[in-house]
Design a protein that fits this description.
The chain is of the alpha/beta class and 528 residues long. It folds into 3 domains: 135 residues, Rossmann fold (3-Layer(aba) Sandwich); 242 residues, 3-Layer(aba) Sandwich (Rossmann fold), CATH 3.40.50; 111 residues, GMP Synthetase, Chain A, domain 3. It is built from 16 helices and 25 strands. The protein has a 5-stranded parallel β-sheet with strand order 2-1-3-4-5, sandwiched between helices. The radius of gyration is 23 Å and the shape is globular. The model has no long low-confidence stretch (mean pLDDT 91).
Length: 528
């Protein structure tokens, strides 16, 4: 088998994004901002970064940036340090910045480090918030008349013109800027939404970060094209999210694993907040089948809640289930239209066959051409048009469903066996006193210990006095009773206040590995 072909290939337009969305019918809300950006010196190819929580005007800035011939980038609100913001600005070659007033200071300092002039910074003071002294409001950009967007209708231009530089998850190192083209965004909507079999009017509450690949295509591009109703939350908060879903009769829910876990483990899980929902999806990281089933049970009658798989480099979704198909096997579905997939081994050899596990490679119109100005990363991650995802998975011959085992670099090698952390994490999460968990592999110094890895867990207790009595040994025995002996948590268990994650909910295991390294240097030993 050369590679796995999709069930169908999509016919894709070659317009720029704004013409594709707005030419029929015509809207002009973005035109004043396009004119303002040009008046401020924003030129074709420039990159504008939004440093903000979610906001109803976010999409307007996103589209105006692209309409002015530029490239969008975004950063995660208060979570970013000055160092991280400087890396982001330099890596994406950001030259214009718009920031909320409450989180402006770090961005101004980072802009100074990156040599972005203060005159190119505007304050996103929506909802009547005061303007900090010495700064100018983004609304000044709306006072320069109107201007049309940069138009084109050519396949090569569509494929090669950047619309956004979205950053990779940063699970293995400093985030890289994925160059997302006009075609990538248009293809993502086409193969996901226009092949959707749901015939009802879709409505969603948007609580995922508006700068992230998990939200950008469906929030700023696809929803406007399809006419979906969106209610924008500033950020995810458990009870307000559930109340909004109920109040606005939400049909579809988009989640990441931390959201799903928080909801099903909350005291609101048995209430009726989600009983009007019809369809749900969870992605960005693996979700335990038990949590998936529990979440589906609190949705509406006959509702679906399935896993999707994708990444920044595939402009979000790569595999999914089409409504109304349900799944309880832990699968991430089947490839979207036009996406080709193959499997390779550690030597890069094609081993594509049903039932065979290997590293998944993808090729298609939603796959980026490369990282922005990063030839080293491109050489490592791309083989021609094939992107090497780093995820280990396989395809079932009978159902054609795909299953993700784990990240290639995160499989724990125990005495010749491969242990997938998500399996151990799922078992730990099934404990009633555990709120969150992450598992990594660690190696201890000395003799045979250095020749194998040991599974080590970092866990967050549920609030309450009962959970505080839970011990390391009890958790080791709890997991050990459910799993093969070689999966025993011989690296030990550490109770922590939180698990480090990126904005989409992926566990930042490199940070845990750094922590474990320090612990080993300080005397941590195997718990055999």
């Amino acid at each position: 088998m050369e590679y796995f072909k999709p069930e169908q290939y999509a016919n894709l337009p070659s317009n720029d994004i704004l013409s594709w969305i707005f030419d029929n019918p015509s809207y002009d809300q973005d035109r004043p901002l396009i004119a303002g950006l040009r008046a401020a010196g924003f030129e074709k190819g420039d990159c504008l970064n939004i440093h903000s929580f979610n906001d109803i005007y976010y999409s307007m800035i996103f589209l105006a940036t692209i309409g002015a011939g530029g490239v969008f980038a975004g950063t995660k609100s208060q979570a970013n340090t000055q160092f991280e913001l400087t890396h982001h600005i330099k890596t994406a070659k950001v030259s214009f910045l718009i920031s909320e007033p409450e989180i402006l200071d770090n961005l101004v300092a980072a802009a100074n480090d990156a040599k972005v002039p203060a005159s190119n910074i505007w304050v996103f003071n929506t909802q009547g918030r005061p303007l900090p002294p010495g700064h100018k409001s983004w609304t000044e950009l709306l006072k320069h008349g109107e201007a049309d967007w940069v138009r084109f209708n050519d396949p090569e231009t569509c494929k090669n013109t950047a619309a956004a530089r979205l950053f990779s998850s940063g699970t293995t190192g400093l985030p890289k800027a994925a160059n997302i083209s006009h075609q990538n965004f248009i293809a993502q909507h086409t193969v996901v939404d226009e092949y959707r079999t749901a015939k009802y009017q879709i409505s969603r509450v948007i609580a995922l970060p508006c700068f992230h690949a998990a939200a950008v295509p469906s929030t700023h591009v696809g929803a406007l094209k399809a006419g979906h109703t969106l209610y924008i939350m500033r950020r995810f908060e458990l009870l307000p999210f559930l109340e909004a879903a109920d109040k606005y009769n939400i049909t579809d829910v988009s989640t990441v694993p931390p959201m799903a876990v928080a909801i099903v483990k909350s005291p609101y899980a048995n209430a009726s907040y989600l009983k009007k929902t019809r369809n749900g999806a969870v992605g960005a990281a693996p979700l335990d089948k038990g949590v998936q089933s529990a979440f589906r049970s609190i949705m509406g009658p006959g509702a679906t809640y399935t896993q999707v798989w994708g990444m920044t480099e595939t402009t979000c979704i790569a595999t999914m289930f089409c409504y109304p198909e349900n799944d309880d096997t832990g699968s991430v579905g089947r490839p979207v239209a036009s996406l080709e997939m193959k499997l390779i081994n550690d030597e890069g050899k094609n081993i594509s066959a049903y039932g065979v596990r290997g590293e998944i490679c993808v090729r298609g119109p939603t796959v980026i051409k490369g990282y922005f100005e990063n030839p080293t990363a491109n050489a490592q991650s791309f083989d021609g048009e094939w992107f090497k995802t780093g995820d280990i998975g396989y395809c079932d011959e009978k159902t054609k469903k795909w299953y993700i085992i784990d990240r290639k670099k995160e499989l724990i090698k125990v005495r010749g066996f491969q242990v997938a952390p998500p399996e151990l994490e799922a078992v730990l999460l099934s404990h009633p006193l555990i709120m969150d968990a992450a598992v990594i592999g660690v190696s201890f110094k000395g003799g045979e210990k250095e020749k194998t890895e040991h599974p080590r867990a970092y866990v967050v207790r549920q609030p309450g006095p009962a959970s505080q009595k839970l011990t390391e040994k009890e958790l080791q025995e709890f997991a050990g009773a459910k799993l093969a002996r070689y999966k025993y948590l011989t690296g030990g268990v550490k109770f922590v206040s939180s698990i480090p994650k990126n904005a989409s909910g992926k566990i930042l295991k490199r940070l845990l590995r750094e922590e474990a390294k320090k612990e080993i240097e300080q005397g941590l030993v195997a718990k055999l």
